[in-house]
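Propose amino acids for all 65 sites.
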């Protein structure tokens, strides 16, 4: 499981997590575990798994820590 910080949230139900290596990982609201998208804030620490989406890596099983 990886950890990172929510870098950007959109009003379209997706956002990006900075993973600590300088890369941003896409996540969709459907990838959240135990949290609602509208409860998230930029700068929050999260844990997640890396999966493969149609456009490259994406975060899955995103949890606020």
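Proposal:
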């Amino acid at each position: 499981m990886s950890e990172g910080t929510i870098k950007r949230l959109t009003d379209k139900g997706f956002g990006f997590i900075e993973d600590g290596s300088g890369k941003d990982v896409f996540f969709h609201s459907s990838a959240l575990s135990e949290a609602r998208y509208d409860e998230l804030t930029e700068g929050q620490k999260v844990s997640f798994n890396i999966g493969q989406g149609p456009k490259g890596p994406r975060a899955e099983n995103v949890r606020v820590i």
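Residues 2-64 form a domain with the OB fold (Dihydrolipoamide Acetyltransferase, E2P) fold (CATH 2.40.50.140). The chain has one domain: 2-64.
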